[in-house]
């Protein structure tokens, strides 16, 4: 029936929840890209940025951050990465809710385990979508960093991959594993239960009929 094995059910929920939490850590992290001194004149300042702002810090530890001035002035991949990360948060939220409802230990939805199994499978799909959105956003951002780094004609400051991207990859991996485990544990096909009752014995019926007929005719004679 549409049941989920309890061990995999709990494991999938934990992995999906950890992936969802790491998205919340990745999105505001300022170190998506960090300046490097490779091929450049050594300076005393460090430049780093994420999807929302760019910052600079000097040797004294003073940080100065500015938000991007206009959404329309941003590069297309930054706008797409923003949309994908926000979508990943929404998908993760839906996945957590659906998984909690579809758990066998949950009282929501009653004891219709076939329906609960299907709801849990939907939660697994949401977790997979969460992981895909995160992986696409983080990998796309990292691909642009790599392209600029190895471009000898790039006039700007060379940058390298920051800690925020590694956290994002971890988030996407956990969400994908959790969603796949949940889908593999669910059988959303409803099995039809056939109830077979043994046919009545003909001998017993004839005996009963005969005895009834005998008593009916001769009982009061």
TrEMBL record:
Residues 208-221 have a biased composition (Polar residues). Residues 201-221 are annotated as: Disordered. GO terms for cellular component: bicellular tight junction; plasma membrane. It is found in: Cell junction, Tight junction; Cell membrane. It comes from the Eukaryota. Keywords: Cell junction, Cell membrane, Membrane, Tight junction, Transmembrane, Transmembrane helix. Pfam families: PMP22_Claudin (PF00822). Belongs to the claudin family. This is Claudin. It comes from Astyanax mexicanus (Blind cave fish).
